[in-house]
């Protein structure tokens, strides 16, 4: 059995960590799948899905770490008019942070519940906000 | 007060219920993959950019594409939805036989604050007879005009209609008419500066980002193509911040303009003071 759902959020900052653990837990419980896997996937290329401990200090360190790897002031090639869009590409740092973070995560599903460690939470990571973003959740198994 | 004088609301969600109309807008403007934006998102974007007001500019290409891209009524509806955030301009197609009548209505009933015209797309020179009634109405209601100038990314546009020097006769013959050369007339920015230093009724907005990042391009244009001193000393009352959102990067441009080597008092003028004068006040 495969159950796919999605939800949309409006981020309101340029870089932002949004906790979505509850949404994932609920999607698993509502899927009817007893044993299998759940995948959480961002539909975008300047965002990430990450699993980490939900602490203010870590969020700050992660943001600072990514900004150090992809600083705003740098001669990026991805800073030009894009003909397909008819608009400018000004978000190279978002793409790079997305590349580092990855766009999905997986968890095991057992007895109809999401199995995760006590310190684990799921983040949607915005790297080019504010924006309207869509997250896919697919639960598969039996 | 930080005002973005150049925003096209074609993809604002409240005026995009109809899928065919939205697709028409994507095609006519050649802007794609951006979706539509709920007002809450627009307000989030304004907050991140530090903007207090957006000046909403419609496009009326009735005789070319069959309808206005955004109508004056749609602009008025958006302003009504957020009167503390939006300033609405009117559009007019100079070759539409009803253009003058529609503009009168836009100023007298819809209470729109100025007129937006696009010579490159609408294919007119500023001295064309078809424009005279529109200029007269703007003078009668004391409303300013924003002309597209310089390069246009829209399809079916010809740059020959939008060279800054073409607007000299209008600025000269109608000194009470406030006109803005959008996009600073890029790439002819020195020509725009030449006109501005000569004609105090001529303004320019900063809606340019055709190459590089906002920071790099603003630095290039406003410190090298035009020395920052020209703006800081001589043109400080005629430059207005504009982003040309959604084609360009509003948040990064708003940040980049404030990083230019200009006096704080000049930046205050560029970011809002000049727009208030150009608009004839905000109320």
Name the poorly predicted regions of chain B: none
How many beta strands in the DSSP annotation of chain A? 10
Number of distinct beta strands of chain B = 9
Strand content of chain B: 5-15%
- Work out the largest interface and the residue count of each chain: A-B, 21 and 30 residues
Give a verbal description of the structure:
- The complex is a heterodimer of chains A (142) and B (283).
- Helices cover 25% and strands 41% of the residues of chain A.
- By secondary structure, chain A is an alpha+beta fold.
- Chain A has one domain: Sandwich (Jelly Rolls).
- Chain A is globular and about 50 Å long.
- Chain B has a single domain, classed as Metal-dependent hydrolases (TIM Barrel), CATH 3.20.20.
- Chain B is 43% helix and 10% strand.
- In chain B, the strands form 2 sheets. Chain B has a 6-stranded parallel beta sheet.
- The relative contact order of chain B is 0.14.
- At the A-B interface, loops of A face helix 2 and helix 10 of B.
In short:
Chain A is α+β, with helices and mostly antiparallel strands and 142 residues long. Chain A has helices spanning 21-31, 56-69, 92-101; strands at residues 2-10, 16-19, 36-42, 47-52, 80-82, 87-89, 104-110, 113-115, 121-126, 132-141. Helix content of chain B is 43%, strand content 10%.
């Amino acid at each position: 059995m495969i159950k796919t759902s999605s939800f949309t959020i409006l981020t309101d900052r340029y870089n932002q960590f949004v906790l979505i653990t509850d949404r994932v837990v609920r999607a698993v419980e509502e899927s009817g799948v007893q044993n299998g896997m759940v995948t959480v996937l961002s539909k975008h290329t300047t965002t990430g899905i990450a699993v980490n401990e939900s602490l203010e200090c870590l969020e700050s360190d992660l943001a600072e770490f990514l900004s150090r790897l992809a600083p705003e002031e740098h001669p990026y090639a991805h800073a030009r008019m894009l003909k397909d869009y008819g608009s400018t590409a000004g978000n190279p740092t978002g793409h790079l942070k997305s590349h580092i973070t990855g766009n999905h995560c997986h968890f095991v599903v057992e007895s109809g519940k999401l199995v995760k460690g006590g310190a684990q939470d799921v983040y949607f990571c915005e790297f080019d906000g504010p924006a309207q973003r869509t997250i896919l959740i697919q639960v598969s198994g039996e | 007060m930080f005002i973005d004088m150049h925003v096209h609301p074609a993809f604002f969600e409240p005026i995009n219920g109809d899928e065919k109309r939205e697709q028409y807008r994507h095609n006519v403007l050649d802007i794609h993959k951006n979706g539509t934006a709920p007002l809450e998102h627009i307000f989030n974007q304004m907050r991140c950019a530090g903007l207090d007001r957006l000046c909403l500019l419609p496009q009326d290409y009735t005789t070319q594409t069959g309808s206005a891209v955004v109508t004056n009524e749609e602009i008025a509806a958006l302003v009504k939805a957020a009167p503390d955030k939006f300033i609405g301009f009117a559009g007019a197609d100079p070759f539409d036989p009803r253009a003058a009548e529609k503009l009168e209505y836009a100023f007298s009933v819809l209470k729109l604050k100025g007129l937006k015209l696009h010579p490159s797309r609408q294919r007119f020179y500023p001295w064309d007879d078809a424009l005279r009634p529109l200029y007269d109405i703007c003078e009668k209601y004391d409303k300013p005009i924003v002309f597209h100038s310089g390069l246009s990314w829209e399809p079916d546009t010809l740059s020959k209609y939008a060279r800054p020097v073409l607007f000299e006769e209008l600025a000269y013959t109608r000194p009470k008419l406030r006109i803005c050369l959008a996009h600073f007339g890029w790439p002819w920015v020195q020509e725009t500066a030449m006109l501005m230093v000569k004609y105090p009724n001529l303004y320019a907005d900063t809606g340019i980002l055709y190459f590089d990042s906002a920071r790099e391009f603003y630095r290039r244009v406003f410190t090298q193509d035009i020395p920052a001193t020209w703006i800081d000393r001589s043109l400080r009352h005629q430059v207005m911040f504009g982003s040309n959102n959604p084609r360009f990067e509003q948040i990064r441009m708003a940040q980049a303009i404030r990083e230019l080597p200009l006096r704080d008092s000049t930046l205050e003028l560029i970011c809002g003071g000049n727009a208030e004068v150009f608009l004839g006040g905000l109320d």
